[in-house]
């Protein structure tokens, strides 16, 4: 099995490198300045660490889902309709996982790194915390208890994150009617914005309908300022990964000596 999987991973990596190279050329020709050397290197370092972490936590993730799947009295079959149901369910769960990650400090500790990028480009897509796999499967326990096949849940989540890779770009403008149903680069640029009008908006992974239903949708109406509300954080991948946890356990002290309820380097004033 490993002999079959290995080459595909190489092909996927090469495909991603081609897309990134194409975007770099586009950015250079259009003078969009979407890439900054030090930040791009930091993104790639974080990506490498994240890939390594997947090997470490894969068994844990499958064990969590498998344990609760065994408790379910329902065992849904493996077919196309059940996979579609699983995919939609996983996207719905992702919306709430993502939204809670912006308003609850312990989860923001994992998510801060993703919003610390000062530029939006394809390499920023996988600016993900190396320890996020500890908490992500916990949110998909309800899907396992509903009897949805464990492998369908895992595949749906992987496809969800894979789709989001393509959302991290300025090379694609608004997409008309598609914006009403699907998450798009325009909608996701809004999500990464530190503009007051954009904070805590557009949490959807594949579908934007959840944001429309639950009042968190915001169209792209003004130029987006990327990054945390406090500005630049670091190019050190270890600090990027750990800063959220440091903020969580070390309360921010205001100039007058009082402890603030808002942690430093937040993307949202409500966190």
From TrEMBL:
Q: Which GO terms describe its molecular function?
A: glyceryl-ether monooxygenase activity; iron ion binding
Q: Name one GO biological process term.
A: membrane lipid metabolic process
Sequence ranges assigned to domain Fatty acid hydroxylase in this UniProt record: 83-216
Query: Where would you say this protein principally sits, based on its record?
Result: membrane
User: Superkingdom of this entry's organism?
Assistant: Bacteria
For this UniProt record, give its keywords in alphabetical order, as a comma-separated list.
Answer: Lipid metabolism, Membrane, Oxidoreductase, Transmembrane, Transmembrane helix
Parts of the chain that traverse the membrane? 6-28, 55-74, 80-97, 134-159
Q: Where in the cell is it found?
A: Endomembrane system
Gene Ontology terms: cellular component: endomembrane system; membrane
Q: How does it sit in the membrane?
A: Multi-pass membrane protein
- Database matches in InterPro entries: Fatty_acid_hydroxylase, Sterol_desaturase/TMEM195
Q: Does the keyword Cell membrane apply?
A: no
Q: PANTHER family, alphabetically?
A: ALKYLGLYCEROL MONOOXYGENASE, STEROL DESATURASE-RELATED PROTEIN
Q: What is this protein called?
A: Fatty acid hydroxylase family protein
